[in-house]
Design brief:
Layout lengths: L2 H4 L3 H24 L6 H16 L16 H13 L3 H26 L2 H12 L2 H5 L7 H17 L6 H18 L6 H12 L4 H30 L9 H8 L20 H18 L1 H15 L5 H4 L2 H49 L1 H15 L11 H16 L8
Helix pairs in contact: 2-5, 2-6, 3-4, 4-5, 5-6, 5-8, 5-18, 6-18, 8-9, 9-11, 10-11, 10-17, 12-13, 14-17, 16-17, 16-18, 17-18
Length: 416
């Protein structure tokens, strides 16, 4: 990290505040035009949050506690419902809080991983990202997961021997636990970061393993209360959720297209645990029977994961049509996907260009690139939809900004 990153100039702070103000303005315009009208998964999150706020029960029905989905995001909305009432403001309030945190954390991480100019460009890229704006009126996990993940990455980087190591590492563990409650995929991110550290030897070995141990213990301890609750409900230990089997089956069964698939009728009368285990077994058997097809299917799902970005429009569809009509909805899908493909192209260009400039070690050792690969790999193995690539967005913004900084502002080296 450079001195400039540690002590930002007034002009840097002013630039960041201008970008934050711009992000607020475009979202305020969106909020003024589009009402919160939950559909699909967004509607499910709303049901969960209402049941938690009104009845203290997590599940689709107040008299049937469950754990099919992770509890983190519904709990955030439930808390807001308790404070502000069940209304649009309660949803928008927590979404805007997470959005502000994401912008601030992108800026801080951009300075840590790259340089101040890159950090500002990355913040601007996210501020104007259509799906990030559209999710302001969606009841969903994505914004909150991004905020928790980025905060955990910040404290992982801050946790260095001799620099409040234990405190920063404990905070990092708490943040990774929070991210895990929102999306269990976060549990293995600390392991990925340690592997990265071992490859590039950017920290003493004892420091890496001490950090990993503290973080994993913190995650385990903080997840235990929910695991104990699940064991009381189901009679068997369940760490966070019971949807791994269904998700694995959706992406790995005869006739699968790789995306969301309604669960088969023969599972409808099963309990959550029985259903998850049965569908997981079907998926595993199918993978074992045709391993070559599994590899081919997984690679195809990598493409499907990135082939569009229309989920923000789809989850606001009725309101967009009300205000802008069918043509407006179509144009928004086109604009959102064009922005997505531009960012994806810039991300790929960043890895190629910076590597070509002789800085491959820097871009490959910085967490954004490796974590994108990790997130892609997890979903490519199970099930894909365009919403599942959303956690990559702030990481992609950082890499895209590094490329723009290196090529247009001629920053050398591209990474500090």
């Amino acid at each position: 990290m450079t001195n400039a990153a540690q002590h930002p100039s007034r002009s840097d702070t002013k630039s960041f505040l201008i970008i934050m103000a711009l992000a607020l303005v475009v979202r305020a315009v969106w909020i003024a035009l589009i009402e919160v009208n939950p559909v699909s998964d967004s509607q499910a999150y709303d049901i969960f949050a209402r049941n938690m706020a009104l009845h203290g029960v997590f599940g689709f029905k107040p008299d049937e506690p469950g754990a099919y989905w992770a509890v983190g995001a519904p709990a955030i909305y439930a808390a807001s419902y308790i404070v502000f009432g069940i209304n649009n403001f309660a949803v928008i309030f927590v979404n805007m809080i997470s959005t502000g945190l994401i912008l601030w954390l992108i800026y801080l991480l951009g300075k840590l991983y790259f340089n101040t100019t890159t950090a500002l460009i990355a913040t601007l890229i996210f501020a104007l990202w259509p799906v990030a704006i559209q999710f302001t009126t969606a009841i969903a996990s994505e914004l909150h997961f991004m905020a928790a993940m980025l905060a955990a990455l910040l404290f992982w980087a801050k946790a260095k021997p001799g620099q409040n190591f234990v405190l920063n590492t404990v905070i990092c563990g708490i943040l990774f636990a929070a991210a895990t409650y929102i999306r269990p995929v976060a549990q293995l991110i600390p392991v990925v970061l340690v592997i990265l550290g071992l490859i590039y030897r950017d920290s003493p070995l004892w420091g890496l393993f001490a950090k990993l141990s503290i973080v994993l213990v913190a995650i385990f301890l903080l997840i235990q209360p929910w695991s104990a609750r699940n064991e009381r409900v189901f009679g068997v230990p369940v760490s966070i959720s019971t949807n791994f089997g269904p998700n694995l089956w959706m992406g790995n069964h005869p006739g699968t297209e790789g995306g969301y698939t309604p669960l088969p009728e023969w599972t409808h009368e099963m309990g959550e645990i029985e259903r998850s285990e049965a569908l997981e077994q079907v998926a595993v058997d199918y993978i074992k029977a045709e391993p070559v097809a599994f590899v081919t299917r997984t690679l195809r799902k990598v493409v499907l994961l990135h082939n569009r970005e229309t989920i923000g429009v789809a989850w606001n569809s009725s309101e967009i049509k009300r205000v802008f009509g069918d043509l407006g909805e179509t144009l928004m899908k086109v604009i959102a996907s064009l922005y997505w493909f531009a960012a994806l192209g810039l991300t790929i260009a960043a890895v190629i260009y910076i590597s070509w400039q002789g800085n491959a070690r820097y871009v490959l050792s910085a967490p954004p690139f490796i974590l994108i690969l990790y997130l892609v790999a997890v979903h490519a193995v199970i099930v894909v939809e365009d919403r599942y690539h959303l956690p990559q967005i702030p990481l992609m913004a950082l890499l895209a900004a590094a490329f723009l900084n290196a090529t247009f502002f001629k920053s050398k080296p591209a990474i500090d």
